[in-house]
């Protein structure tokens, strides 16, 4: 994966096809999770990943926290759904190198033209991508039963895959941040 800031303030990212599919699947699942929580208040309260994305405003006053959540959760969930859907939809329209003009097919840093797909993110969408990546990582951290110090409590093959995905999403997020900070 290679990420560069474009002249219009957006980002140009080159992903391997498997990375595009992985991001597409992860953001689709995030949209489903958030939409389900938006439709079902009990799910929003009971799912630890949703609670992690919508932490209590008043940790020492459960009644005030419940009231605050009642007025804010819907709007926050809608915003999170929009961010994840924007990423998912952008990935549905990714151009493979075969779809591009010869002058567009070379990845700027690697020169690789065979195994990458171009994702163009305009400036207004960059923050949506960063927010969706954060929500994906928060969800994975909760599914991994990650402690505040980064210790993973979940065992097994699923844990290894989820941890690799968590780390990779962190790398993508970091690449985006470095690119926009130039």
TrEMBL record:
It comes from the Bacteria. This is DUF2017 domain-containing protein. It comes from Leifsonia kafniensis.
């Amino acid at each position: 994966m290679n990420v560069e800031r474009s002249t219009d303030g957006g980002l140009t990212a080159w992903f391997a096809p498997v990375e595009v599919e992985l991001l597409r699947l992860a953001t689709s699942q995030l949209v489903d999770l958030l939409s389900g929580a938006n439709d079902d208040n009990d799910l929003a309260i009971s799912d630890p990943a949703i609670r992690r994305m919508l932490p209590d405003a008043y940790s020492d006053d459960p009644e005030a926290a419940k009231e605050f959540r009642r007025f804010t959760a819907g709007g926050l969930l809608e915003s999170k759904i929009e961010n994840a859907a924007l990423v998912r939809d952008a990935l549905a329209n990714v151009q493979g190198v075969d779809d591009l003009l010869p002058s567009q097919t070379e990845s700027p840093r690697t020169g690789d033209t065979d195994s990458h797909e171009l994702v163009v993110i305009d400036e207004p969408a960059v923050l949506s991508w960063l927010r969706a990546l954060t929500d994906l990582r928060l969800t994975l951290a909760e599914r991994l039963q990650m402690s505040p110090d980064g210790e993973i409590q979940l065992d097994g093959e699923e844990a290894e895959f989820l941890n690799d995905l968590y780390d990779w999403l962190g790398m993508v997020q970091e690449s985006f941040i470095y690119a926009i900070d130039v």
